[in-house]
Amino acid sequence: MKTTAQTMPRTASAAADFAELVKARLSLLALSTAMAGFALGTDGPWSYLLLAATLAGTALSAGGAAALNQWWERGPDALMRRTRGRPLPAGRMTAPDALLVGLAFSVCGVAVLALFANVLSASLAAATIVFYILVYTPLKRVTSLNTIIGAVPGALPPLIGWAAARGSVNAEALTLFAVLFLWQMPHFLAIAWLYRDDYARGGFKMLPEDDADGTVTGRQSVVYSLALLAVSLLPSVFFGYSAVYFYGALCLGAGFSLLAVRFACSGGSAGAAKALFLGSIAYLPLLLGLMVLAR
Question: Among 74, 119, 207, 276, which one is most buried in terms of CB atoms within 10 A?
Answer without folding.
Answer: 276
